[in-house]
Structures are given as structure tokens and as C-alpha cells.
């Protein structure tokens, strides 16, 4: 544990030093040093409207993931109950969602809805839905039919078997899908906001970019990276420890 | 014997086919109230298929099954213990044992939770209520599975080689405990096994199946008084007889 923590610290130091070194060597106004970036980040975080933009981006990420996950989960689960859906998902829905670039969805939504909240939200939803479809699909394939058979002996209700036995078996898959989704969702939101919104972190980035304020671009980028890391390590390792690890044998 | 005479389970002219393979051929027998009946047969002879059809987990293709006097199997009348414990790994012992109530009624009432607790006492797991399946031994997991089958207070327990895969000591310990529980609960047992010794220890009556196609070769009464000892002359003789029939 201690050794790993030390390695994390060393890796971080190397990163900051490398950044600093490259910035110093290039000695360019277009490559801010870590200190200039941190200074800019501080300026951003203490400015009056920054948290509002961070908040609105967070809201879009969560709303988009909520819509995308609900859609993906319903489509994914439906394959278990209707063979037609299994074919439709495999041959049409999944390939379509998977192959169309997010940027295309984003452009279409801008044309349809203009600079509204719904534009980045739907861009996120369409880009994360495939994660849920494919993970639930995989989860259903791995489903322990011994357990569903046991459960169906006690009830005629498919809903209860779904709720008490099948869904819990799918949680690890849904968890994995949510994790990859949120990572992608943040990136999509920023992208969507750059040209499809009048608020949010992406919008602020585009303003900084439009006015050639490179240290602002770096500052927002850093803010963005920090938020992503907090989301991923903080929230997910917490959920993993609290709800998943406790019924699994510890590997030591 | 304990059998009081009224029939709990009636299997009439049951046949089953997988594709072109006839797995069960005209099987007929019944189980009386309070009786332990073992179905003994070689591996792959269709014993499990027979049990699954009786449990309602597979459709009746040819023939008929009557449980508790009715043609439709009331889910509450039968309990099933499978070869594997089939526990939900994310639920504690208690959580697994109340599962039948949650599946039947949405959630378990306070009274039902007491029944679950009682069942755990009966199988000797009252100290492991909050353990997860991975923390239990194979024998203990099968005890949880037994407790889960007991909570609905079934009139007949269907056992699909429940002790296969456990070591000899655990297996014999559980055989004795299940007999004790059976006497307490006054239910019937239909017990599928490939082990002649287990059949002699458990059964009032042993139905010996033949292989390919599976028919009833013979039915052997085991008139040995309980509690049974595995080393008496009668016991060994009955076991030898079953071994001979299996050849």
C-alpha cells in the first residue's frame, strides 16, 4: 500500500516536472507552465460564474447518462424477452449507435434544437446508450440460469424474478457501463457545448479559445481533468467498496 | 411406517423425449404423505429430468402428475433442493432464506422473517445469519438451500442429489439431519440419488431406474427401523441388493 502510494506521488511529480520542463524549453506564450495554469485555474474557480458553468455541465452529463442508460437498459433487457428485439439490437440498433460519430449526432441535435440544454444532453445519451446495451447483453449471456430457474419456482411474476434475481446479477455490468459512460459523457458534453450551447465548461473553453487566451484553455482543461478524476476514483471506488466488494471474496 | 396412506404425489405414465431420444419411458409411482422415496439410477439415466418435470421446471409431455390431489402444482406445496445450493451471492444467509417470500409476495412480512429465522435454527445456522455465501463451507451452503426450501412449509421436498459433491463426513451428517428435520416436519421426501448407501439410509422405498430407455426396473421397500445404522446386517444386505440391481 505504502509502496503504491509512493509510486503515485512519484508519477505525479514526474508529470508536473515534464510539463514544466517542456513549457520552459518551448518558452512560448502558447505553452503555459504548470504555475501559470494553476494560477489561471484559481482565477477560474474564484470567478463568480465558473461554478455555474461547472454545475450546468455536470447536470447535462448526469441527465444525458440517465436518459442514455434508461434507453440502453430497456433495449438491452428487452432482448431477453423478445427474440425480435435480440435481432433488432444486433442488426440495427447497436451498429447504428456504435458507428455514427458523436459529432454527427451533436450536429443533428444543434440543427433540431438549437443552443438548448437538450442538445448536449441528447448527444451524451446517444453516445452512452451503446455501453448499456452491450454490457447488459453480455450480462444476460453470462446469467446463471440455475438461479433464475430456482427463483421462477417460487413465483409466476417475471417482474419479481427480474427485480430480485436478474437485475442484481446485472449490477456489475451496469456498474461497468456507468463508469465508462461517465468518462465518455464528460468528453461529449464539453464537445457538444463548444458549438451547441451558450453555457457550460465547453462554452467557456470555446470563449477562451476564441479570444486566444491559452492559459484559460489550459485552466479549464485542468479543471475538467480534476472533475473527471474525482468522479471516477471518488464515487466509483466508494460504490465498489460499499456495495460490491462486501459479498465477494477478497483477493489478497 | 410413518406413511399415513394419503397420496401427496402421483406420477402416472410419464414419458419424455429430447429430440428423438426417449429419456423417460412410462414412469408411474406415487409418494404418500410422510414417506421418503428415493429414486436411484445410474448417471445420465434421466433422474434429474424426472425431478425437474415433477417440480414444474419442465413441461409434462406425456402422462400426468398430481400433487396434493390436484393436477396443477401449487408452488407452495413443493420445495426443491438442487444439487448446487443456488444461493444469491449478494445476499446474506437470511436474505437468501426469505427470498421465496419476497418472490411470492413482493416483500417478506415480519411473521415470514420469523419463519426464516426458525428455519435457520432448524438447519443449525443461527450463528451465520449475516454471512455471505462465499464465507460458508459447501455443507453450510447446502443447509441454507435446505432452509430456503423449508420456509414455505412444503408438503413434499424434492431433492436432486443434494449431497453429491460434499465430502463423506458432511454428507452423512446432513443425511442424519435431514431425517431429523423430516420427522419433525412430517413432510414427504422425494430424493434422487445415484448412491445405493444413501438410498438405504434415507428411503422407506427405493425406485430403481434402468438406463436407456429409463423405466422403473423395480421398487424395493427398506423396512429397516429408524434411526438406521450403516453397519447392521440388514443395512448392508439392502445396499448390496441395490448395487446388484444397478448393474
Question: Summarize this, please?
Answer:
Chain A is mainly α and 252 residues long.
Q: Percent helix among the residues of chain A? A: over 70%
Largest interface: A-B, 21 and 22 residues
pLDDT averaged residue by residue of chain B = 90
Q: Helix/strand-derived class of chain B? A: alpha/beta
Q: Order of strands side by side in the largest beta sheet of chain B?
A: 5-6-7-3-8-9
Strand content of chain B: 15-25%
Main sheet specs of chain B:
6 strands, mixed
Question: Which spans of chain A have pLDDT < 50 for at least 5 consecutive residues?
Answer: none
Oligomer: heterodimer
How many β-strand stretches of chain B?
A: 9
Structure summary, number of beta strands of chain A: 0
Q: Unreliable runs of chain B, pLDDT <50, ≥5 residues?
A: none
Describe the structure.
- The complex is a heterodimer of chains A (252) and B (247).
- By secondary structure, chain A is mainly α.
- Helices cover 84% and strands 0% of the residues of chain A.
- Chain A has helices at 2-26, 34-46, 50-81, 83-99, 102-113, 118-141, 145-152, 158-196, 201-210, 214-244.
- In chain A, helix 8 (158-196) runs parallel beside helix 9 (201-210) and helix 9 runs antiparallel to helix 10 (214-244).
- Chain B has 247 residues and is of the alpha/beta class.
- In chain B, 34% of the residues lie in helices and 25% in strands.
- Chain B has 8 helices and 9 strands.
- Chain B has a 6-stranded mixed beta sheet with strand order 5-6-7-3-8-9, sandwiched between helices. In chain B, strands 2-1-4 form a 3-stranded antiparallel beta sheet, covered by helices on one side.
- In chain B, strand 1 (7-18) and strand 2 (21-32) form a beta hairpin.
- The radius of gyration of chain B is 18 Å and the shape is globular.
- The chains are: A mainly alpha (252), B alpha/beta (247).
- Chain A binds chain B through residues 146-147, 149-157, 160-161, 164-165, 168, 171, 246-249, and chain B through 55-57, 75, 80, 82, 84, 86, 88-91, 99-100, 102-104, 106, 132-134, 152.
Amino acid at each position: 500500500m505504502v509502496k503504491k502510494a509512493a509510486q503515485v506521488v512519484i508519477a505525479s511529480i514526474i508529470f508536473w516536472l515534464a510539463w514544466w520542463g517542456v513549457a520552459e524549453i518551448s518558452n512560448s506564450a502558447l505553452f503555459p507552465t504548470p504555475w501559470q495554469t494553476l494560477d489561471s485555474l484559481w482565477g477560474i474557480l474564484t470567478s463568480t460564474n465558473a461554478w455555474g458553468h461547472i454545475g450546468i455541465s455536470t447536470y447535462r452529463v448526469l441527465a444525458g447518462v440517465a436518459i442514455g442508460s434508461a434507453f440502453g437498459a430497456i433495449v438491452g433487457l428487452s432482448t431477453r424477452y423478445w427474440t425480435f428485439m435480440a435481432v433488432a439490437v444486433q442488426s440495427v440498433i447497436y451498429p447504428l449507435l456504435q458507428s455514427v460519430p458523436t459529432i454527427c449526432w451533436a450536429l443533428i441535435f444543434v440543427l433540431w434544437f438549437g443552443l438548448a440544454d437538450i442538445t448536449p444532453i441528447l448527444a451524451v445519451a446517444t453516445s452512452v446508450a451503446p455501453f448499456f446495451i452491450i454490457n447488459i447483453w453480455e450480462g444476460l449471456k453470462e446469467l446463471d440460469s440455475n438461479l433464475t430457474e430456482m427463483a421462477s419456482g417460487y413465483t409466476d411474476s417475471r417482474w419479481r424474478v427480474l427485480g430480485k434475481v436478474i437485475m442484481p446479477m446485472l449490477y456489475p455490468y451496469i456498474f461497468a457501463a456507468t463508469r465508462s459512460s461517465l468518462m465518455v459523457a464528460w468528453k461529449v458534453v464539453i464537445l457538444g457545448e463548444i458549438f451547441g450551447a451558450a453555457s457550460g465548461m465547453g462554452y467557456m473553453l470555446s470563449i477562451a479559445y476564441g479570444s486566444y487566451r491559452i492559459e484559460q484553455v489550459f485552466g479549464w482543461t485542468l479543471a475538467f481533468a480534476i472533475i473527471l478524476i474525482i468522479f471516477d476514483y471518488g464515487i466509483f471506488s466508494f460504490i465498489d467498496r460499499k456495495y460490491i466488494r462486501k459479498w465477494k471474496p477478497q483477493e489478497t | 411406517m410413518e406413511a399415513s396412506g394419503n397420496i401427496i404425489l402421483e406420477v402416472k405414465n410419464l414419458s419424455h423425449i429430447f429430440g428423438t431420444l426417449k429419456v423417460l419411458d412410462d414412469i408411474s409411482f406415487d409418494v404418500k404423505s410422510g414417506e421418503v422415496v428415493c429414486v436411484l439410477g445410474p448417471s445420465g439415466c434421466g433422474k434429474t429430468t424426472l425431478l425437474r418435470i415433477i417440480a414444474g421446471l419442465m413441461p409434462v409431455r406425456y402422462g400426468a402428475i398430481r400433487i396434493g390431489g390436484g393436477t396443477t402444482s401449487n408452488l407452495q406445496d413443493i420445495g426443491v433442493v438442487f444439487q448446487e445450493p443456488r444461493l444469491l451471492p449478494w445476499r446474506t444467509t437470511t436474505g437468501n432464506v426469505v427470498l421465496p417470500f419476497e418472490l411470492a409476495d413482493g416483500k417478506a412480512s415480519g411473521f415470514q422473517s420469523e419463519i426464516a429465522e426458525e428455519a435457520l435454527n432448524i438447519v443449525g445456522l443461527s450463528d451465520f445469519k449475516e454471512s455471505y455465501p462465499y464465507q460458508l463451507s459447501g455443507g453450510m451452503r447446502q443447509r441454507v438451500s435446505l432452509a430456503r426450501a423449508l420456509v414455505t412449509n412444503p408438503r413434499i421436498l424434492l431433492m436432486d442429489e443434494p449431497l453429491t459433491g460434499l465430502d463423506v463426513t458432511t454428507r452423512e451428517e446432513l443425511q442424519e439431519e435431514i431425517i431429523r428435520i423430516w420427522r419433525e416436519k412430517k413432510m414427504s421426501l422425494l430424493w434422487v440419488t445415484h448412491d445405493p448407501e444413501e438410498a438405504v439410509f434415507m428411503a422407506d422405498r427405493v425406485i430403481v431406474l434402468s438406463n436407456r430407455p429409463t423405466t422403473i426396473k423395480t421398487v424395493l421397500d427398506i423396512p429397516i427401523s429408524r434411526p438406521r445404522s450403516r453397519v447392521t446386517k440388514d443395512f448392508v444386505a439392502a445396499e448390496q441388493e441395490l448395487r446388484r440391481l444397478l448393474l
